[in-house]
Amino acid sequence: MDKKTQQRQNTYDKGPKGNWEQVFGRNPWLWFLPMHGASGKPIGDGVIWNQEQVYNYEEEVPANEGESRRTSRVTGSGIVGSREIKSSRDLFAVSPRSTNQVDSTRSSAPRSQAPNSERPAQDNVKPINMETMNAVVVEEYGNLNSVCAKEMPVPVPQENFALVKMEFAPINVIDEITILGHHTQLPTPRILGSEGSGTVVKSGGGQADSLVGKRVAVMAEYPGSSGTWAEYSVVHVSMIFPLSESTSFEQAASFIVNPGTVALFMQCIREGGYPSIIQNAAASSLGKMLVRWCQKEGIQTVNLVRRREQAEALRNIGAEHVLNTSEQGWVQEASKLCNELDVRIGFDPVAGLSTNDLMTVIKEPGVVYNYGSLASQTCEVSAMLLIVQKKRLEGLCLPVWLAQLSPQEKERVSEEIEPLLPDVLKTDYSGEYNFSNI
């Protein structure tokens, strides 16, 4: 086995020196003492091994909503810094195979335009005779430069799976995490893309038969699915949402991951009868959606951000309670607000010490739901918060929730999300790309 193959299979192997420092720290004077200071603190803890990746989780939020959103960039050990992954609200347009270019009628149309200008769904349902297709893949986890356009076999749907001719697919944070190797590591080259929109053109049998010819939004997070940054994607029926004619493919590209997650949050809020909530990373696209949906239902929100311009962006959409965690005294102010507003539920996509911060400021008894690890750290929580104050930490996973829904429940979720896509759950894209841009 060559050295490159070994490194690909074991991304945690830092070499003799790096492995030693993971356990004993970088200060040789403290290696043989039963203690360590800040300079001698181990890089790893024997369980969680630091790969030195730095995420910028303050998602693409500009001071002015009209400006182009800032590019999220990932740097780290073994990653070439010259390659950038765009923000989580960029859009990948899957162009027709014959031209390999974006259809100008779609790319130039207003976002609010109904899909009358798009190709009718029945025109897209044609026999699939091609054996290969264009796709965007990662060829080596942890290497942004290995992301490229590649000709791949057209996937074959199995029972309860459908083949979808893709139209649009957003660039999400989860795609960046996948490239870095922190998501489920399937064999490479791996087709990227976690969600998108298109038309079902073939069924593998079973429940998928009724979907052929329908315009749909899809999520490729079910085992056996293939990525959406491709001309065709295979998706499980539990992750397929039929669309009404009033929703464009462009709107539906971001139908599931962010809006679906907010729908899951709203279910938790309603079931608990909570009058108010707190969230961190509140200036993200998802955070703004949660603010708008809570406004719609009369639920108070306390929103935590890290920069002044992010606080201003939230206030511009009507958020009343916004705190900048880079300023002194924010914990005391958050605790005061949570007490006044009876905040007993929080939502945390960051993890690390941010989880403990939310657990500290909410009223007791209360619960914090973690749904991500943007800080690339495990959740840290004081035992006393759990034991004495009877606060809870739970996890939420959108694909698990969707897979557990009955067809009737999933239909209700879809009926609630779709009318809100133009405003409450709207997604602003900073750019549009196709295979010729890769």
Please bin the fraction of helical residues: 25-40%
Q: How many helical stretches?
A: 14
Shape: globular
- Oligomer class: single chain
Biggest sheet overview? 7 strands, mixed
Radius of gyration, CA atoms, in whole angstroms: 23 Å
The secondary structure category is alpha/beta
Mean pLDDT: 79
**How large a portion of the residues is in β-strands, by DSSP E?**
15-25%
Measured between the Cα atoms of the first and last residue, the distance is 31 Å
Element order: H for helix, E for strand: HHEHHEEEHEEEEEHHEHEHEHEHEHEHHE
> How many strands in all?
16
Low-confidence sequence ranges: 3-9, 45-88, 95-127
Could you name the key traits of this structure?
disordered N terminus; six-stranded parallel beta sheet; single chain; 438 residues; alpha/beta
Give structural notes.
With 438 residues, the protein is α/β, with parallel strands linked by helices. 27% of the residues lie in helices and 18% in strands. The chain contains 14 helices and 16 strands. The chain has helices spanning 3-9, 15-24, 104-107, 121-124, 173-179, 249-252, 257-272, 285-297, 308-316, 330-341, 353-361, 383-387, 398-404, 407-417, and strands spanning 90-93, 132-138, 147-153, 161-171, 190-191, 195-203, 215-219, 232-236, 240-242, 276-279, 300-305, 321-324, 345-348, 367-370, 392-395, 432-433. Strands 1, 4, 6, 7, 8, 9 and 16 form a 7-stranded mixed beta sheet that branches. Strands 12-11-10-13-14-15 form a 6-stranded parallel beta sheet, sandwiched between helices. Strands 3-2-5 form a 3-stranded antiparallel beta sheet, with no helix packed on it. Helix 7 (257-272) crosses helix 8. The longest helix is centred in the middle third of the chain and has 16 residues, at 257-272. 41% of the residues are buried. The model is unreliable at 3-9, 45-88 and 95-127 (pLDDT under 50).
